[in-house]
Amino acid sequence: MKSFVVFLPALLFFHTADAGSWRVNSDVSKKPHFIDLNAAMNSSDVISGDTIYLDPGCNLTSTQDITKQVTIIGTGYLISNNVIEEAVVSGPIYLKASGIKIEGLKISGTTYMASNDITIERSHLKNVRNSGTAQNVTIRQCYIPNGDIRGEGNNSKTTANWRIENSIIIFNDGYDPIKYLYSPTVCNNYIRPNYTSASASIAYVDGANIYNNIFINTRFIENANLYEVTNSKVQNNIFHIESYKTDYPDNTIIDINTEEAVFAIDGINELRYRLKENSPAKGAATDGGDCGPYGGTYPYVPSGYPLGIPRFESSSVSSRPQDGLLRVSQKVVIQAE
User: Fold this and answer.
1) Which pLDDT tens digits describe the chain residue by residue (337 residues)?
2) Residue 155: CA count within 13 A, CB half-sphere
3) Strand locations in 67-166, DSSP E?
4) Domains in the chain with CATH codes
């Protein structure tokens, strides 16, 4: 992350979108190009390959249908203490074009995968579902504090080859945070079932590659972390179930099933899940790095700030004019990783 301070006269500057870039804001007084994503999709001016930016404070409450291969970029999430506000899709969103990418968005409605080669990064999600053929889906660096990821079935190629990595996935309201997928890759996540009944972390998958994850089922110690996981490679994960010493020998088995055994627990939300100094997940990954969302090739980014997007972090105004000008100091941060 890079930061710099700029000194400007007390003038207000507006960003003008380049060709192929569009602003969406549900508040028409902000003079956006479109009031929601549906309007952008219905415009002949928006074509495949364009980028759509959701303004700070934008809240799209109705169902959104994304029918073109575009990139949609929000502002990040869990950022209420900063100057910038979240951009939210609070209704369902259907991703209906191949190659769609979403980054830095809070989606509190259900996300429906309805095409192939979709990528969602650095986003705050609720439930993820398929709605038609949806192969080669990537969910990366996402925060899912109470939701699940559900495909078509462990023998169905409709939802084949999903990749779920460097995410935090906790599910309170139902069974099994990840389920019904064929040939998925699940790596460098923290996955915790937290339902009031028996639940596994991953269930009903076939041909999976499962590695470098942390699994802690704090509510039901006797439950399996993996259930009906067949023909799969399972290695370098952190488990707390004694029988897995025999069932899955290429993994690390810890003696207790508390989060404090692995994580620092010195913050809120996703910050709780940084590893403590003597964590058994340190150095336990396949590449000699750390297991969990903050390790691997794509370490988790708190608040999901989009890559390369500048944001104002602080500002101040001089108490007196100097040389006839009022001096404004603003700290601009660019997310560089």
Assistant:
1) 544 443 333 333 333 445 499 999 999 999 999 999 999 999 999 999 999 999 999 999 999 999 999 999 999 998 655 546 889 999 999 999 999 999 999 999 999 999 999 999 999 999 999 999 999 999 999 999 999 999 999 999 999 999 999 999 999 998 999 999 999 999 999 999 988 887 899 999 999 999 999 998 876 655 679 999 999 999 999 999 888 999 999 999 998 889 999 999 998 899 999 999 999 999 999 999 999 999 999 999 998 888 766 665 555 666 666 666 766 665 666 676 7
2) 1
3) 71-73, 88-89, 93-95, 101-103, 106-107, 111-113, 119-121, 128-130, 138-140, 143-144, 149-150, 163-165
4) 14-314 (2.160.20)
Q: What is the pTM of this model?
A: 0.89
Q: Which two tokens stand for residue 148?
A: 């699940």
Q: Which two tokens stand for residue 183?
A: 């040939």
Half-sphere exposure of 72 (CA within 13 A, CB side): 31
CB neighbours of 320 closer than 8 A, spacing ≥ 6? none
